[in-house]
Amino acid sequence: MPVAELAPAKINLALHVTGQRPDGYHLIESIVTFADIGDHLTFSLADEDRLSLSGPFAPAITGGPDNLVARARDGLRGLLQARGVEAPAVAIHLEKNLPVASGIGGGSADAAATLRGLLRLWSAGSISIDEIEALALSIGADVPMCMAGRPLIASGIGEKLSPLTGMPRFTMVLGNPLRGVSTPEVFSRLASRQNTGLVLNDPRNWMSILNASRNDLERAASDLVPEIGELCELLRSRGAVLTRMSGSGATCFGIFDSRRSADHAASMLQAERPDWYFASTETIAGS
Fold first, then answer.
1. Backbone angles phi, psi at 151, to 5 degrees
2. Which of 17, 45, 179, 221 has the smallest number of CB atoms closer than 10 Å to its CB?
3. What fold, for 165-282?
4. How many CB atoms lie within 10 A of CB 1?
5. 175 annotated as belonging to a binding site for a ligand
6. CA contacts within 13 A on the Cβ side of 28
């Protein structure tokens, strides 16, 4: 039977850049959660490996060997074959619903969903959690947190994960001006790489925590894509109680008081800016 996986949008509710390693990787502390929307992947056994694409943002990517889905497939197969475990050819279909290079973990989420799906399809119980986590990190710094798929604090270069069991759901609108942002270029424009870390001063009041935090990449990304500031202002004008950029951009989120108000805001914003991406969503709660 085919296996299906959702690759949910990753939302950086806060992202503090706290240092830089000698190898160039930046150190972060980030509050991460996941939305109930995302890309969809299906996996089925086949006579040869295939990666097919559909969805509104499929034209922006290719199905070649550099696709993170293909890299995850090939990496997991290598681990299995090294143990003499069969990893037969697989047909993968990726429905690309999230904007590309948008700061919500699209490619990383797809890679994580591929690892989860193929572990099920190939019945790969012989691979340890440590090996899977190492493989995920080798594909990309965001892939381990996308593998976790739950509210957490990510630190280090993104590989150190601490679950947030008390985080509530957030109703929000995601918006993107459909301009891709280069993560390395955003980091290269940082005014400071030595900033204060997160302070979880009152875990019973998450809005207070979020209001006291920030995204240290937002100003640098806004220099590259001025529409980020306009997007946040549009979200505020439609009733968002908090707006911020996610990841390295250009996707921004606005937190709303109710799903009804978020749905209405997303509809109005899409009508106002039909050339941009808007979607209402609800994040998952920590458990």
1. -60, 135
2. 45
3. Alpha-Beta Plaits (3.30.70)
4. 6
5. no
6. 29
Is pTM beyond 0.90 here? Answer: yes
Q: Which strands, in side-by-side order, build the sheet including 242-245?
A: 242-245, 252-256, 171-176, 277-282
30 assigned ligand-binding residue: no
Is 105 annotated to bind a ligand? Reply is: yes
d(CA 128, CA 136): 12
Among the listed residues 247, 282, 32, 31, the one whose alpha carbon sits nearest the alpha carbon of residue 170:
282
Spacing of C-alpha 118 from chain mean position: 20
60-74 residue pLDDT tens = 999 999 999 999 999
Give catalytic residues, as residue numbers: 10, 142
24 known ligand binder? no
287/80: higher pLDDT? 80
Q: Domain map of the chain by residue range?
A: 3-162, 165-282
May I ask the CATH class of domain 3-162?
A: alpha beta
